[in-house]
Amino acid sequence: MRLxxxxxxxxxxxxxxxxxxxxxxxxxxxxxxxAFVSKTVTVxxxxxxxxxxxxxxxxxxxNSIGLPNKGLAGYLAHDLPQLAGLPVPLIVNxxxxxxxxxxxxxxxxxxRAEVSALELNVxxxxxxxxxxxxxxxxxxxxxxxxxxxxxAKPLIVKLTPNCTSPADxxxxxxxxxxxxxxxxxxxxGMAFHPRRAGEPWLGGGTGxxxxxxxxxxxxxxxxxxxxxxxxxxxxxxxVQSGRHAHDLMQAGADVVAVGTESFRDPLAGARVxxxxxxxxxxxxxxxxxxxxxxxxxxxxx
Length: 301
Ligand code: RRO
Hints:
Elements: E1 7-9, H1 16-23, H2 25-29, E2 36-37, E3 54-57, E4 60-63, H3 71-83, E5 90-94, H4 99-110, E6 117-121, H5 137-147, E7 155-158, H6 166-175, E8 180-183, E9 187-189, E10 207-210, H7 215-228, E11 233-236, H8 242-251, E12 255-258, H9 261-264, H10 268-281, H11 293-299
Parallel strand pairs: 1-12, 2-5, 5-6, 6-7, 7-8, 8-11, 11-12
Antiparallel strand pairs: 3-4, 4-10, 9-10
């Protein structure tokens, strides 16, 4: 897959169908990402976790969304036709509660011409079994052995930071037929209710931490995974600026995903891509030699 620039969205952080409703055809003319990664699809429809589902942190947020989606049949009937109209390649993110379920999803999307690649979500922190297949190299290998024969489309394995060694899992994915890996998914975290003693704020109890708070962790994990595998890496975690994207590329990412920042600024992807382009044209040196105070805050320089 050839992309005009290296910035995509992190799964679940940009609703292209809602954005199209809000911004109309202007969204298609200036789509902020080089490829679109869908929110996770499961075989059966899901309501998601009970509210509250978000907690804002000084350095980002904790989500406990719990994979609400229309299920495979609903997605094929309602979402896929709309996403097929986007001006960029579509990557569908899927998750199953067993190998057979992931196999069913891979086979179904694998035969759709609208789909350019699949991302296997083996790293969701918000359902009990969400990370079973992605926290252990043997489980990841067994999953890939099961699903790899079901499609010729590229398979991207989304890694969890909530395990002993993401690099071991990445190496297993590479050895068993993955075409790329993406990391990091969110880090498990929690917050207490400010007015009810002992009660967690999030309906799901715990959630996934994202945003600037996880940026340094993402950088270290991408560097560790890059040292182990030769596959393309989609790096993500707290990217707010071209500089942050460039840092992830220095750590070994080939493509960078913008996630939490898109909630603050739906056009963040386009801005990050433009800033990254300037930095790369300047030989990897920040072109803004003397950032003003606003920039210093926004870019954390
Ligand atoms: O839906 C979610 O709660 C969710 C998912 Br599937 C995921 O992979 N990562 C995350 O932080 N939240």
